[in-house]
Amino acid sequence: MNQQGNLQIGQLVKILKGRGAGQIAVVVSIADSRFVYIADGDKRKFDQAKKKNVLHLVPQPKISSEIVNSLNESGRVTNGKLRHAVKTFLESSEYQAEEKGD
């Protein structure tokens, strides 16, 4: 199976295609093997999660345990938690290193 096929809930992804290209979002649910729903808590709220083809996303090496736990417990996650996960990731060294590599 290709790398995109194994996205996990709570995983951060970089959007390659569409209006949000270049932005970071969080996988909030998995529709099937080809599509996932993503949200960032800011422009794309949890209740309006965007259905994206996994081929248009680049999985990042970070999975937010906070979001996973929240979804497991209540089936939803606050937009604040989504924003926090994205912000923390953007400030982390993993993302900075990738950007400098271009």
Layout of secondary structure:
Elements: E1 11-15, E2 24-30, E3 35-39, E4 50-53, E5 57-63, H1 65-74, H2 79-91, H3 93-100
Antiparallel strand pairs: 1-2, 1-5, 2-3, 3-4
Mean pLDDT over all positions: 90
Shape: globular
Structural class: alpha+beta
What is the helix fraction of residues, given as a range? 25-40%
Number of domains: 1
Q: Report low-confidence residues grouped into runs of 5 or more.
A: none
Biggest pleated sheet: 5 strands, antiparallel
CATH arch. level architecture = Roll
Structure description:
The protein has one domain: SH3 type barrels. The protein contains three helices and five strands, in the order E-E-E-E-E-H-H-H. The chain has helices at 65-74, 79-91, 93-100; strands at residues 11-15, 24-30, 35-39, 50-53, 57-63. It has a five-stranded antiparallel β-sheet. A hairpin with an 8-residue loop joins strand 1 and strand 2 (24-30). The longest helix is centred in the C-terminal third of the chain and has 13 residues, at 79-91.
